[in-house]
Amino acid sequence: MKTRFLALALAGVLAGCIAPEGVTDQDLATFDAAVASIGCDLVDSSDYLPVELQTGLPRDKVIEVAQYRVSQKNAVKLSNGGIRLVSGACTPVSAPAVEQVAQAG
Known about the structure:
This protein is mainly α. The chain has one domain (2-91): Arc Repressor Mutant, subunit A. It is built from 5 helices and 3 strands, in the order H-H-E-H-H-E-E-H. Helix 2 (25-37) packs across helix 3. The radius of gyration is 17 Å and the shape is globular.
């Protein structure tokens, strides 16, 4: 029983380390650029459609890539059910820099 549990737990951990089947590094880079082009949030059909068109990936694969990006901490889940990319062009601006500018002014 313990061996089966450990195997399932290890499979779950490893699943987050491997890109979705059939998705290349180029696909991941194209996905990141496409999500950045729509404002970094992927929430509903108005977001998914341009990402699908720009990447050439079907909706189910876009969803898998989004989940993979969350598992790799390159994206975060949003309360509305979507995701926000937080890497590359979508890296959030650090709050301390904004506070320093406000204090200087």
